[in-house]
Amino acid sequence: MTSILPAEAAQRAPGPPVRDTAGRPGTSTRTAPAPLAPRARLLPSLAAVYRAQLSRARVARIPLLFVATFQSVGIMVLMRGVVDGGTEARAVVAGSSVLVVAFVALNLLAQYFGQLRAGGGLDHYATLPVPPAAVVLGAAGAYASFTVPGTVVTAVAGSVLFGLPLTHLWVLVAVIPLSGAALSGLGAALGLLAPRAELATLLGQLGMSAALLLGVLPAERLPGPVGWARDLLPSTYGVEALSRSFDAHPDWALVGFDLAVCAAVGVLSLAVATWAYRRAAVR
Asked: Dihedral of the CA atoms 89, 91, 94, 99 (nearest 10)?
């Protein structure tokens, strides 16, 4: 006669004889280990990290965004007494607009990852089945998105202040995310590679100061070695693209070239930031 075992009993296989606490012989049972959950995919993980970081930044960073915008508008007001118009005015407005991105995406993100590493927050992310690229890209995207209102306000205020046309300000649709990606990757890398949180803050401040001095000041007024340093700054190409868009008849080929260089630098800087995250997470 055949019998049907319950499903629970069928999953258990008899083991070798063992003795219980009383010394009586018995039979052990072995349960097969449960399979691990599959690793989260990149895009859903990226979306989850992006939403979480954006919600956090919206609560904690609004006062700092106001400071960044006020700072950029104040710089343009000061430069108005020195610069009348022409290419210098376009450089001042473009540099001040991208400076908002540098303040948030470079400076604040360097501080965030520096504090995250110093406080052990990376250990929390390392225990999650989330790809390292999703953590870096999600945080970088959230901080770059957070700069949109301040950058638009600064660009419009500067255009009105210096009498520049508003016709081609739609270029900001490309300038903000590409400059934000380049500067966010640089800020994340600085924060993750810095051995101490204080040093990450210092590097972020120095990076923002470089974006201020090399981006706002007209390129033709900079000495040769400083001009070479300006070419190495990721935000320079976003500034150049926005500055060219203020022309009556912009050279769209050059605008596209500047944006392409900015995109390439953004991919490279985010790749370096991802590598730095992997390096910091395993230590």
From this structure: -110
Alpha helix locations (H) across the chain? 7-10, 42-60, 62-80, 86-101, 109-118, 121-127, 132-145, 148-162, 172-193, 197-216, 224-232, 236-244, 252-281
Phi, psi of 28 (to 5 degrees): -85, 155
Give me the residue label for tokens 């090399």.
214
Q: What are the backbone dihedrals phi and psi of residue 204, each rounded to the nearest 5 degrees, phi first?
A: -65, -40
Cα dihedral across residues 173, 178, 179, 185: positive or negative: positive
Structure tokens at 114: 């520096």
How far, in Å, CA of 106 to CA of 186, rounded? 6
pLDDT tens-digit readout, 52-82: 877 776 666 677 778 888 889 999 998 888 8
Structural contact between residues 72 and 150, judged by C-beta atoms closer than 8 angstroms: yes
| CA neighbor of 240 nearest in space, from 249, 224, 251 | 251
Q: Express each pLDDT in 77-115 by its tens digit.
A: 988 888 877 888 898 999 999 999 998 888 888 998 888
At position 37, the amino acid (one-letter code) is: A
